[in-house]
Amino acid sequence: MYVCICNKVSDKDIKASIQDGATTMRALYKEHSIGSQCGKCCQCAKQVLNQELIKIADSQFQVA
To answer: Does the keyword section mention Signal (predicted)?
Structure first.
């Protein structure tokens, strides 16, 4: 699904960036220019970011 139509960024693109180390909206902006046009994608991108960071934290917690 496209999160940012203006810059053609999908949720898969965002998830891949997070797996590569992006942990903030600023990092997503630098990599994909999320929010640089109309800004309507910011809320959805933030949701994807938070969900993925929670998954990562949960998996690290379960291992420890």
So the answer is: no
In this predicted model, what pLDDT tens digit does every residue of 7-62 receive, in sequence order?
999 999 999 999 999 999 999 999 999 999 999 999 999 999 999 999 999 988 77
Sign of CA dihedral 30, 36, 42, 44: negative
**Phi and psi at residue 4, to the nearest 5°:** -120, 105
Summary count for the chain: helices (H), strands (E): 3, 2
All domains of the chain, ordered by start, with CATH? 2-63 (1.10.10.1100)
Pairing of strands 2-4, 9-10: antiparallel
* Strand extents, DSSP E, the chain: 2-4, 9-10
